[in-house]
Structure formats: structure tokens, C-alpha cells
Amino acid sequence: MADLAEVVAAIAARGAEATDRGRVADYIPELAKVSAGHFGIAVVTAAGAEHVAGDADTPFSIQSVSKVFALVEALCRHGEGVWDRVGREPSGSAFNSIIQLELEQGRPRNPFINAGAIAVSDLIAASCEPGAAIGAILARVRALAGDDSIAVDAAVAWSEAVTGYRNAALANYMRSFGTIAGPVDATLSVYFQQCAIAMSCRQLARAGRFLAAGGVQDGVVIVSPERARRINALMLTCGHYDASGDFAFRVGLPAKSGVGGGILAIAPGRASIAVWSPGLSPQGNSLLGTAALEQLAQAMGWSVF
Ligand code: DON
Prior knowledge:
Bound molecules: 6-diazenyl-5-OXO-L-norleucine
Number of domains: 2
Oligomer: single chain
Radius of gyration: 18 Å
CATH architecture of the largest domain: 3-Layer(aba) Sandwich
CATH class of the largest domain: Alpha Beta
Number of helices: 13
Number of strands: 12
Structural class: alpha+beta
């Protein structure tokens, strides 16, 4: 069996040197300011041991990785009722696509595409006092990471809010079908802020550890083992949008990407892994982050297949 610390260090060295680094997202202007030169990795084992390398302690915009924590929050508040609003099928479409919404009566395919995540934000808002939903999501993330310093990057949230025409279209369209019940502006505000949460690889890997440990973190039941399995199943099948099949083929782990260049991956029973490299593939997933996870899964024999 390969030595995990050595594998992590070798992956970070390759990540720092790589020349083809993908393209940093620029449709959210604030994200375009981030250098493509960063590379970080953190592996937190199910038992809590940590191995980090590169820019593992530099905060970045977690963007769609937040959709995992929002889903957990919604499931804890609404139970299986979440699935009355959102499906559990891969979309095979881009993260911000609208086409299936018209064909499928305003019901998003899954909670990880933008439409599904906006519907999940709306569900959380429905069970909170006005204005408290982002606080609930943030509190969840802080508790899971064991770090109260984690915060929303207000500049990123604002940058997305003033350019988020597609998300506004998705939200308004879903509101017309009743998939969203609350005020569209309030729902979008929750969604933009959750995407703008800034975390480091170390914080993110810590926050995902319960998914590698049957739903339990430091003796506290976060979700049942069955729910942890199901969230992992959704991450595997839907976590990389129209690249989910290729990610499963190459890496073989449940994982969720974000356009900030972060990926949270779960090796069930073994570890929670966070990688960050801001340059993206054409589908909007971290190019070097994916390569790093492929190397890690291969070296450690962690693919679930
Ligand atoms: O809604 C958006 O477009 C972004 N806040 C999040 C998209 C995203 O991270 C897609 N993931 N790869």
C-alpha cells in the first residue's frame, strides 16, 4: 500500500509544475481575478488524520461545492420531502442549462445543477425566519469544519448577483411552475451567498469527513448511514454535471466540483479529500483537481469500483 503522505506530496509537486492548467472562470467577474497558478490538496481520513500540501490553507470560493452542504441542510429540515421538488437523475447537461426545465414541468433533474440547487435554497428559506437561510447554511458548514471563521465572501456574492442573469432566468422559470415557492430575489440571494462561501482545502476536507464515515463525525450523527450513502450516490452520478460519467470513469469517487476550481471527493470508509486549482475544463470542473484525484485514487486503490 502506498504511503498517503508521500502520495499527497507528489501530487502537489506535479500540480505546482503543470503547464496546461485550464481556464479560470470569468463569467463571475470576481472569480476572474484569481491566479490559475494555485494548487492545494487536503486529505482527512475517516479517523481524522490530516495530510495537506500546496495551497491547502488558502481560502477560495467553494461555489457549487456548497450544494452538498445545502442539500444536507434541506434534508435535515424537510426529510425525503426534498425529492418532491428535485429529482435524482444525472442531467447530462451543463450546470446552468435551462432546456430540461421546460421539458420536465419545471422540476430540476438533481440538486447539484444550478436549477436544483436554487430550488434547494428555496426549501431551506421556507423553513427559516426571513433572512436566516444563509445563516443556517453557514452554521452547518462551520460546525462540520469545526471552524467559526468560515464566511461568505461578500465581493464574490455581489459580483454574481449583478451578473447572474441565467440563474435569475432559472429561478423565475421555476417560480412559474411552483418549484420555487418563495420570493425569487430572496431565494437567489441565499443561493449566491452560499456559492460565495470561502474555504480552504483543509476546511473543506474536514467538513466532508462525515460522508466518508457513514454520516458520523466525532461521535455526532450528522445524517444516517443510509442518507450518507445516498448523498455520495448523487455526488457520483451528478456532481460533475455533463462530465460526471467521465469523472466516474477516471477517478471512481463521489465528488462535487465548483467553478472556483475546488472539488470535494469522498472515498467512503477511508477519507474526505479537497483539491483546488482554479483553471477549469470546458465543462467547468477543475482541470488539475480532477487529474490530482485520478492520481490519488489510483495510487491508494480508493476507487469505489
Ligand atoms: O451559479 C453559478 O453559476 C455559480 N455560483 C456556481 C456554478 C458552479 O460552481 C458550477 N460548478 N462547476
